[in-house]
Write a structure and sequence with these properties.
Rossmann fold, 4 strands
Length: about 140
């Protein structure tokens, strides 16, 4: 049996469909506290809700039920976004949203873990996480 190589468009459609189901499952879990894992490749650890896109994480954070998040930076193919904008989306986008929400709205951030293999991005993300913690204490 020969396997065909999947096109980028097909991969994105499958990922978006899986993301919808995961978000649907996540919304069911939003009634209770949750841990959220952002990664396009690695599976979430047991007890964590897996998300693929920063927007999913932000929507879950807005529920106030998220106690911990773990963020990857590089989220693979960023083309084919539903909004038509071809801009790279990363776990860093989630940190920027949290930082702004803490400063402007008094948002209480969850515990933040970073699990990216991109060491340059990891340093930037850790620095932003440290800022978030400092702002939250003020």
């Amino acid at each position: 049996m020969q396997h065909k190589k999947m096109s980028r468009k097909t991969r994105n459609q499958m990922r978006d469909q899986q993301a919808w189901w995961d978000a649907h499952d996540a919304s069911k879990q939003a009634k209770k506290q949750m841990k959220v894992y952002l990664d396009d490749v690695r599976p979430a650890p047991d007890g964590w809700v897996r998300t693929y896109w920063p927007e999913e994480v932000i929507e879950l954070l807005k529920t106030g039920k998220v106690t911990e998040i773990s963020l990857d930076h590089d989220l693979g193919d960023h083309f084919g976004r539903p909004d038509g904008i071809d801009k790279e989306r990363t776990g860093y986008d989630v940190l920027l949203w949290i930082e702004q929400a803490v400063v402007l709205e008094g948002f209480v951030p969850p515990i933040i873990h970073i699990h990216t293999a991109n060491w340059v991005a990891e340093e930037r993300m850790k620095s932003t996480r440290d800022n978030i913690i400092r702002y939250a204490k003020e």
